[in-house]
Structure formats: C-alpha cells, structure tokens
Amino acid sequence: MQLRYAFRMYPDAPQRAALARAFGCARVVYNDAVRAREDARKAGRPFPKAGELSTRLITEAKKTASRSWLGEVSAVVLQQSLRDAEAAYRNFFASLKGTRKGPKLGAPRFKSRKDARQSIRFTANARWHLTASGRLNLPKIGAVKVKWSRTLPATPTSVTVIQDSAGRFFASFVIDTDPATDAARMPESDQSIGIDLGLTHFAVLSTGEKIDSPRFLRRAEKKLKKAQRELSRKQKGSKNWEKARLKVGRAHAKVADARKEFHHQLSTRLISENQGIAVESLSVAGLARTRLAKSVHDAGWSSFVHLLEYKAERYGRTLVKIGRFEPTSQTCSTCGVKDGPKPLHIREWTCTACGTVHDRDHNAAINVKTAAGLAVTACGAPVGPEPVLAQREETGSHGFETGNRAA
Question: Catalytic amino acids?
Fold first, then answer.
C-alpha cells in the first residue's frame, strides 16, 4: 500500500519566492482548465481532452505575452496541476452517478492565492533528488533544507510541497510500503479489544482502561481568542494584518498537530497490542449540529478511526465497525438482557435481571467487542458475526504519516 511521509522544510528567501511562483503558476493552469471546461459546458460543446488542454494552456500559453512567465517553473508542476483538475472532474461525475463512495462532491471551483493551503507536486519525471547533505533539490527552486526526523523506508515515487495556513512548508513523499517489513515490525497478537469513544473520556476499552480526553482546543481557547481579537483589530490586507493572520494560523496548527500526535500514538499502541479491534460507527456530522459540536470536533473521532483503519490494513490486523444503532449502552454485558435507554447523566446502572453493577462506558466497550464477533465464550467459540478486514477507499491519499512522530 502507499503512504505519505511528511517532513518540515526550511526554504530561504529566494527559495520561498520561487515556491510562491510555482504555487501561482500551478494555480493559474488549474483555473484555466476549469474555465475551459465551464466555457465548453455553457456553449454545449464536449469537454476538451487532457492533451488538448495541455497544448493550449501550457505549451502554447508559454509563447504568449500574458502567460510567458509559466516558463519560469518546472513543466511537471504545470502538468500535475492539469491532472488535479482532471481528477476533480472525474470524482465529481462519479459522485453524481453514485459510483463514488462518501459524501457528494460539488463541481470543481477556482483556486485563490488566498487559500489557506497551497501545494505543487513533482513526479519522478521532474528529476528531483536528495543531495548528499540531506537537502531536497527541486527543479528551478534549488536545494531546500529538510528536517529529517527519520529515514525514508523506500525510494519515494513523488513529492508534494505544501504550504499551510501557518506559513510552514512541508515535503510529503509517497512511499510504497513493504508488506514483509510491516509484518516483521508488528507480529501477530492473540488479544482483541472493543473501544467506546466518548467526550468525558476519549476512549474506554473493554479491558477497563479509560483514556482521558486531552481537549486540545478547549485548553488553547484563551490564546486563540487573543490572537483572533488582535487580527480583527488590524486593517485587512495590511502587513500587520498578515502578521496577525499567521499568528492565528500558527495557534490553530499547534492545536491540530497536538491532536494528530495523540491520535497517532494511541492508534499505534492499540494496533500493536491487539489483533482484532472493534469500534462503533458514529454520526459525527449529526453530532456536530448539536450543542456538543465544539467538543465533538475537538475529540476528532473520525480522524482517529481512520488511522485505525489504514494501520489495521497495513499491519494485517482486523478492524470491525459495528452499527451506530447497536444498543451497546442499554444491554447488560453479563447476561445480555436489554435494560432500556438511559439518559447521558447516568454513568453507572444496575442490571434488573442479574444485579450486576455496570460502568456505562466500560459496559458499552464490552458490548462493542461482542457485537463485532471478537469476544469468545469459555469454550473458545466466537460470539457474533465473523469480522472482515477494514477496507480503504483511496489508498495513498489518506494514509498521511507526519515526519515528527512515531508510526
């Protein structure tokens, strides 16, 4: 499978200017492709092919006075921008037909230089390479300093340079992983576990372990409010406004990085210790429309479950997601009697059938494991349906491993 390994980059002033040019040229080519497609649609003509767009928007455009500056950047960057536009339309049409899984996608929109995230991609045809001193040599940009937190496990097939809302630069390498190496890294285990995700505790395991919720956003709210207040008092578009905007971006990036680090460390530990993992599929979009919205987003359940999915696939583990309507909080994990719904403020309850006193979350975690078929009886027979391997929809596009933490 394919994964991404990202490392922090530190370009100097000329290199930052060259990257800004590359971002701008790639954005212009993308917008020209979208405009050409929209003009053809409005005129009732068939969409121009990728080859025709490449000739018109890149090769011929470089010869004109209005687009001559496209020649200042690598041609591979421009070609990859066209490929991104093609992929955007392909995903849009697949979403319309219902052949693409996930939420519905809208039509491709124009990109802006004010977008929080800018990126360009270099494939092997661009002839980028790593120097002997560990710098990343990019065509028409130069050898950029990279902070290597670990070695790359294989030769990358491409690299994407990203600038985020905090003004930071990252080099994201696409790596084809070796199944044999992954299997040796995490040998098989005879343990299985059920996980109940929540807000009071981020996760309660069927073993009884409770993992507190770090609440990264809540803890940083005071600093975020101060930075946002300073930004609102600056004249929009001024240099001081730009400095304040970067300060807000850095504050939010610090929260997001801390949450991502927590998710990676916990998911890796659970994957390494257990052969089978069961979680409950939650309606995060629905919960985000309630008064608990900020706490739900702060917890980041979807990101955590996604990490469990791709790591389970990578290391040969079994991940089972049970339905969200399974009455895990209403069923006694000892005798199996359904005791009825209970308000959220009730954290402990006693089963009316067998008299067992249950911790609400621990009982739910045990029921999640049982419903997934990972629990066993005294004779060793599995209870519930057989689990299936977790499947990922777009291998390589979501398995994003940052370079500043352990996988």
Answer: 196, 280, 361
